[in-house]
Amino acid sequence: MGKKHGIFGQMLREKRIEKGYSLRRFAQQVGVSPTYLSQVEQGNVQPPTADRVKRMAEILGENPDEWISLVGRVPEDLPEIIHSHPREIPELLREASGLTAQQLQRLREAARKMKEEER
Domains in the chain: how many in total? Predict the structure, then answer.
């Protein structure tokens, strides 16, 4: 499988062990077989669906959006958000591309304030 799959699998295994989960126990909580989980950790199969990756991240106390992105998927709520404003959202994303993390944080805070003012 690809390098990206191996990186995700390695990170998943490290975090699972760090949090004290056995392979069987974690697989049970996620809703997959231990064999499949082992294959994911070894990078031998395609990464799980965005929903499963989100569940894994939540169980391990990690950021689901980061993990979903790491496996090359898009959080499931984003297509609907984009379709709600098909011109504005893609334009906003293009404009925001290249901003620093600090600048993106300020943009997010400004958007949150605008939403609060609407209420």
Answer: 2
Are 57 and 105 members of one domain?
no
Residue type, 97: S
- Predicted confidence (pLDDT) at residue 56 exceeds the cutoff of 60: yes
Structural domain of 61: 3-70
Question: What are residue 99's phi and psi, to 5 degrees?
Answer: -75, 155
Q: Which two tokens stand for residue 104?
A: 């993106």
Nearest residue to 26 (alpha-carbon basis) of 39, 11, 16: 16
pLDDT in tens, 63-98: 999 999 999 998 889 999 999 999 999 999 999 999
Computed on alpha carbons and rounded to an integer, the radius of gyration of the chain in Å comes to 17
